[in-house]
Amino acid sequence: MTARAQFAKMNGLGNEIIVADMRGRADRITPEAAIALDRDPATKFDQIMAIHAPKTSGTEAYIEIINSDGTQAQACGNGMRCVVQAMSAETGKRAFTFETIAGILTAHEHPDGQISVDMGMPRFDWQDIPLAEAFHDTRRIELQIGPIDAPVLHSPSVASMGNPHAIFWVDQDVWTYELERFGPLLENHPIFPERANISIAHVTSRHAITLRTWERGAGLTRACGSAACAAAVSAVRTGRAERTVTVTVPGGPLLIEWLENDHVVMTGPAEWEFSGTFDPQTGAWQRDDTAPSQGAA
Ligand SMILES: N[C@H](CCC[C@H](N)C(=O)O)C(=O)O
């Protein structure tokens, strides 16, 4: 058995996150461990944010992002806020520079506890999303689901926030759509060679969007920060909204600002739930404050 690693179960607006401290270790969290942790109701998560020692000077840490199906993701805005809260509690620092598979990003904690993450620049070229075929205008691509002559969802905007997103615009309450049914079909549609995060968006004013997301590799979530960013920039590109917008996801509101320098900044909360230790090989875990019988160990 491998030595245990420390973790904190946290959430970002209900996006279920495990922040795992993998610094000073040579091993990685296996897909089997991720799947085992997700199967246990107490540690069920959408993403694991694995903190590794920095690879690049000037960065605090290298963050690996793992979906609940064990696959890797390039971006996780809500998870990044959880990492900031955990590391600011540990170090007393408020501003951080991190590296992920998608590059370098910065984040800081405000005095009121809200956390802003610079999610970088969105990309809109079809090759960057990526799409399987050329679409020169990604504000609206040909893709629909439901009866051919009366599609339920159609013509999404697509964008990359490091990870692939499709945003379907709707004119009514986002809860009236069966996202749990259409999500998996669209996530795995052949137009998305790396699959995609699927959102339905209702623009309710020039500064407000309501959003639900089916996440690639994780399914229905209460919040998806990168999808909120993708929806906000896509709403601006299609003339639906201004560059500062509140995106309300099932877990609550996120403030998204698309700055003049093309960076997208997301601001929202993070919440600690409990801490423990786990085996990165198997996912066996134990709460810090309970007797050794707890968990799958
Ligand atoms: N929950 C995340 C996104 C997870 C990304 C993931 N599902 C993927 O791209 O594979 C967020 O807050 O941005």
UniProtKB/TrEMBL annotation:
PROSITE patterns: DAP_EPIMERASE. Keywords: Amino-acid biosynthesis, Cytoplasm, Isomerase, Lysine biosynthesis. It holds the Pfam family DAP_epimerase. Substrate binds at N15, Q47, N67, G77, N78, N163, N197, E215, R216, G225, S226. Its main location: cytoplasm. One of its GO terms (molecular function) is diaminopimelate epimerase activity. The active site is at C76, C224. GO terms for biological process: lysine biosynthetic process via diaminopimelate. It comes from the Bacteria. The keyword Ribosomal protein does not apply. Pathway: Amino-acid biosynthesis; L-lysine biosynthesis via DAP pathway; DL-2,6-diaminopimelate from LL-2,6-diaminopimelate: step 1/1. GO terms for cellular component: cytosol. Its EC number is 5.1.1.7. It is found in: Cytoplasm. Belongs to the diaminopimelate epimerase family. HAMAP family: DAP_epimerase. Homodimer. This is Diaminopimelate epimerase. It comes from Phyllobacterium sophorae. The lineage of its organism: Bacteria, Pseudomonadati, Pseudomonadota, Alphaproteobacteria, Hyphomicrobiales.
